Amino acid sequence: MPAFSSLCLQVLRAAALVGVIALTACADMSKTECAQADWRQLGYEDAASGQTVARFGRRSEACRKNGLPSDRALYEAGHAQGQVAFCTPARGRGDALAGQAPAALCAADPVGDPYRQGHAAGLQQFCTAPSGYDYGRKGQGDNQVCPPELAAAFQIGFRMGHELYGLNQRLADIQKQAADERAVLAATTTLPERRDAANRHLGQLDADEAATRKLIRQAELSALSLAQSGGVPVPVPSSGVAAEWLPGQWRLASVSFSTPVDLNRDGVKSSDGMNELSSCVRDRQLDLEGDQRASLRLGVHTPGCLPVIQLYRWRTEEGMRQDVRNEGRRRVVTERPALFLRLRGIRDDEAPAMVVEDVDATYLIVRADMSDGTGPAREAVATYRRVGR
């Protein structure tokens, strides 16, 4: 076989291992390759590398443009033999365990039955909560390969693993920002105002790092409880834990938006809300009293801000939360147990609910919609530090 076709075959075999079926660079055949083509062998090799018989059309067109014929009958005969070699139970099981959809080559023909049987058996092992967790924590996307009767368990684990992956990415980003700010402080040429800004930012990053590490530990403990409970996640924290730790004064320490935003209109998008929000919006304190009274104080501690104090009654409520994420062009919605912190005003108006991700003697971490007052609210993880401890 000509060298170019051999090279393409090697590339296509490698591509098939990661779910890539067609490579445009190998779609054409040169005039020399068309003249020397063994169409039966080409059909066999295409099928053995996972290509459907549609590949013949691209090969044939290339040869037609070079003024040379092709032989569909010989190609299909070789392709049928290659299909048998490709569509094995072992390959089907391996593709399922890798989270891949069934190969198109083995989709309908009776010759694909062994492959499909192997794939179905592999899904029984792959579509579990622990497997979903492992798949998600590596940052891989959900290819929606699990049948309906197995998908729920896989999705529970996948969501938890994917959340852990995102938290670890966030932690790495915080540590990089902190290293950059420390480099600014170490430089002898840094101006005083830039040095002050770096110190303030480092304080925010320290709080954000502590909160992110707590969320990582919580995600890991939730995964452990998932494994120990046979695939049923345990909501964390519980209402009892919240009742013990929630009462107190909490001042905003860091904000991390779910997607990068440009609220300060400087042309740069960032997930770090403390950079994007104004100093008045960042000045936020939540007071939760033991008798269920609550107040939200905005701009009280910052000179030049218009102080605003909003009065509420607070309560916690266990329920289910919908998490929405985009995977490529797909919008994926999953549900999970959650603890909500709800604030109701004196006129029975209710502030947007906050999901309590974690709370202890030092930090309160909530997930909620947050706005700078000039545009729509966006989901963010807000970390409050307890005042007076």
Task: Give a structural overview.
- Helices cover 46% and strands 22% of the residues.
- The chain is α+β, with helices and mostly antiparallel strands.
- The protein folds into three domains: 3-125; 148-227; 239-386, Lipocalin, CATH 2.40.128.280.
- The chain has an eight-stranded antiparallel barrel with strand order 1-3-4-5-6-7-8-9.
- α6 (89-97) runs parallel beside α7, α8 runs parallel beside α9 and α9 packs antiparallel against α10 (192-228).
- The protein is elongated.
- The N and C termini lie far apart (77 Å).
- The model is unreliable at 1-27 and 232-236 (pLDDT under 50).
Offer a few descriptive terms.
single chain; 8-stranded antiparallel β-barrel; alpha+beta; 389 residues; Lipocalin
Task: Estimate percent helicity.
Answer: 40-55%
Which of globular, elongated, flat, extended, rod-shaped describes the shape?
A: elongated
Question: Structural class per helix/strand content?
Answer: alpha+beta
Unreliable stretches (pLDDT < 50, length at least 5) are: 1-27, 232-236
CATH architecture label of the largest domain: Beta Barrel
Instruction: Return the string of H and E elements.
Output: HHHHHHHHHHHEEHHEEEEEEE
Query: Distance between termini?
Result: 77 Å
Major beta sheet, specifics?
Answer: 8 strands, antiparallel, barrel
Number of domains: 3
Question: How many extended strands?
Answer: 9
CATH class placement of the largest domain: Mainly Beta
Strand content: 15-25%
> Count of helical segments?
13
Output the CATH topology of the largest domain: Lipocalin
Strand order of the largest sheet: 1-3-4-5-6-7-8-9
- The whole-angstrom Rg is 29 Å
Mean pLDDT: 82
